Amino acid sequence: MKDKKEKFNKNEDNLEQELIELGKFYFLNQKYDQAIKEFQEALKINSNNPQIYYNLGITYEAKNMIEQASKMYRQTLELKSDHVYAKEHLDKLVGI
Amino acid sequence: MADKKQIAVIGLGTFGYNIAKVLSQKKCEVLAIDKDEERIREISNIITHAVQADATEERTLQALGIKKMDIVIVGIGTGMEASILVTLLLKEMGVKRIVAKALNSLHGKILRKVGADKIIFPERDMALRLAEGLISPNILDQIELSPYYSIVEIHAPQSFIGKTIREIDIRAKYGVTVIAIKKKQPIVTKSGETDFKEIVNISPQPEDEISEGASLVVLGKIETITKLKKD
After folding, report:
1. Which residue range is the domain that position B40 belongs to?
2. Chain A residue numbers touching B156 (CB-CB < 8 A)
């Protein structure tokens, strides 16, 4: 994976997307801790991307880390108030 | 039509409205009755029949065919008097099953006397659940079977992750029985978003593994479940 990261180093946009995809890949394989690492790396490049916060939220929720998950869903909605999935998950966690 | 359950809901406050809505979603034939025109209008597009009427009048209830309903739910929340009167009328008319909402324990006693088959105390029950949930945030849901036994849904303790029920030896060690494991399965939705769905494994086998993020539905003595939560 290191090679991949280096390959895209010059193009931050691509690297950001690549990290998100990698994180999603780990998430889908239930490697939640690794997924979180990738998403956090992506956040370092762009801290204004709601997609990253949503994916972090869903990964935390999958790990039953409810507080962290709620926080991430809230961040998602701050950046993109019509994010349907983040809203659904947050509503469920808050108990609405 | 014949196999659909016919249920009437009288009184469309928050409680009645939501019961009517969910029953309708669950394919029951629902008749909703309320005095307030606005509420009837609000619910009329999501349920089968909504009628603006005064349910304390016997003739009205008869005209609506209440007697033929499988269940009648009295959800009137504004006045005890109306709720008691309606329950009495329903009983006299021979309704098969009456479920009534009580505002307090005295109201509950009266409802029982006038013939309600089941009494619910939404506020009291919700308060108990909330209190339990606040004290122990790991408890997701709880059904009390007796003062000593409960069915409780908890987040799987960290020490259980990756192990099978047999390996943990839950019954011997904690004296509780796992009746279901709920696990989260990561998925990609049609729109390409990541999400997960909950898969419920009811009556799991000893060799079933508890995966990360799973919750367990366990049955046991309340004090032993408390011990399990702390692990």
Report:
1. 6-123
2. 64
